[in-house]
Amino acid sequence: MSSAADIKKILVIRFRRVGDAVLGTALCTSLRQTFPQAEIHYLLNTHIASLYEGHPDIDKVITFDNRDDKSLFRYICRVWSIVRKNKYDVIIDMRGTVRTLLFSLFSLRTLYRIGTKKSYTFFALNHPVDNRADRSKNMIKHNLEFLKPLEEITTVRYCRDFKLYVTDNEKKIFRDYMQSSGIDFSKPIILAVVSARLEHKIWDKEKMKVVLKKIISKYDGVQIIFNYVNAERLFATAIHAEMNNHPQIFTNIEASTLRDLCALSVNCDFFFGNEGGARHLAQALNIPSFAIFPPKISKNRWLPEQGDRFAGISPDDFFSKEEQKLMSYEQRFSCITSDLVWAQLEPMLDLHLTV
Prior knowledge:
- The chain contains 15 helices and twelve strands.
- The chain is of the alpha/beta class.
- The chain folds into two domains: 4-152, Glycogen Phosphorylase B (Rossmann fold, 3-Layer(aba) Sandwich); 168-352, Glycogen Phosphorylase B (Rossmann fold), CATH 3.40.50.2000.
- The radius of gyration is 22 Å and the shape is globular.
């Protein structure tokens, strides 16, 4: 019978986008607290790997880039090389695809090969977890269920906190940049996301402008920084232009990397805007936030620890699943009015903004 002392190396496979990987850090922290002697590796897509630099619960970040994904032969060779070199004692496949199962398939001597129970996972996993049935659970609870099989050898220390870290130097460098761009740190600062990577996830522009005007009107001297990436720049600057380039809105401060976005976030007092990766980063950095969730993105699933500090609004707040099946996507999204957003946002701003 194995024991906790036998666990020397652990591989956690995540991949996908920012939000998925950020929420996955709670599992890494749980592993660190349960197996303090173990080395924890986190497998990610290259473009998000920088977020986990300096994370105390991740010893090594292993990355796969587009070249690895496009060539099946290259992918298989890299999987084989990684598992043969490291000889993991635990593999936790949070992604659960045929491709990611190769890590377990090439590691049949690994004590714990854990992943979501699916029709095709029996040939690779020796500890499948049935964590797909209850869609009401948030993603933190969903992810932590992967640790259940490890309870047979030790008391698992479950941690529901998901965190990212910014160094003091990173924070200072970006603070200096913000000051040189016109930000006054004696007044409140809001990081706002008015656009989104996918157009259908963007809340109505006119409603967004109404809320932004209310914020500017009520909170004296408040400064709103529009965050954007690549093509989203045009959308953000267009809204600014439609608001007569209001001097309390800033579109000249750009976070060109994910590390920069983290540094920007920790220099702000509040996050507001469309749900997405930037909101996940803000919450992982403990920045109070309020997000607007589009249809088909479950607030209960993707927004853990809801309360006075982290909140959001969703069509699910107003209509049942059965009612929404009878509505178009546009009808569901349009039910989120500027008045409804303001009614929930204003008390949070009152609580968290220093005016």
